[in-house]
Automatic annotation (TrEMBL):
Protein name: Ig-like domain-containing protein
One GO cellular component term noted in the UniProt record for this chain: external side of plasma membrane
Positions of transmembrane segments: 278-301
Any GO BP annotation: immune response
Entry keyword Repressor: no
Residues of the Ig-like domain: 192-265
Coiled coil: none
Keyword entries, A-Z: Glycoprotein, Membrane, Signal, Transmembrane, Transmembrane helix
Amino acid sequence: MGLFIIILIGLCSHSLQYFYTGVTRGINFPEFTDVGLVDGEQFVYYDSNIRQAIPKVDWIKNNEGPEYWTRVTQIAQGHEADFKANVGIAMQRFNQSGGIHTFQWMYGCEWDDETGATDGYEQYGYDGADFISLDLKSTSYVAPVPQAVYTKQKKDGVAAEFMKNYLTQICIYWMEKYVQYGKSSLERKVPPQVSLLQTVPSSPVVCHATGFYPGKVMISWQKDGRDLHEDKRAELKVTPDERKKNQFTCVVEHKSGDPIHMILTEEKIRTNSNNSPVTVLGLVVAALVLIPVVVGVVMVVKRRSGERRSKQHQ
């Protein structure tokens, strides 16, 4: 079946992720944010305005005491100071003297509780583009742009070894601990709500899914009951005349139950012209972009060197 993964948070059964974002001044947004997620669910948050790490779900609030939150706050404050410096350093390397810029860091680990397989990753980004990332197999960093070569040289060696150890061992330990804390919440299954959206009558029809948990859904199209393989997207690019002559069905697959089949009819399509505006889609897309920004995820995310102790990466 031709499948299009519209949202994917973690390929394995469980994941622990951290997202950090530093931005230059000039917009109505904290200069630094730090967000942690377990299985795609935000459980801890910090930003440079509140300057305090706070729980976002009851399962972490009820299982960790003041010492934990003091430690996590201190770690986040340390990252905040680093990010303010790193944004300025990146601007210098890219010969920029002003403007709005973002420096991001994302790292995390994944664990398949059925096979026992684990994986991890670390990525940095600047202004939404790849800056540098860790290759776990070679235990070395990859610099896709010249401005990141110096960072690669600095981080290869001790920092790379430390981060690999963290991602493959320490991160897995904390992930398993957090999963146990939030077992009842993280194992819940909420089915998606499916909509057919279109900007104008001549534009592609988008099969859109929202509100589901866990955060992984697969969307495909069928024509007269047969899978469409040639275009593995959530968009259906066919003419209105072809839609009238054939039956097109959007198929949405999610862990919550059997696949959802929505047959495409003109009455079901929400467009800008029928008072069910696709601005809804715009708002949802904006939310999916904004949440990552708040979460620190606007494309790739910057991380700092792994020279802190293991307890700092919780």
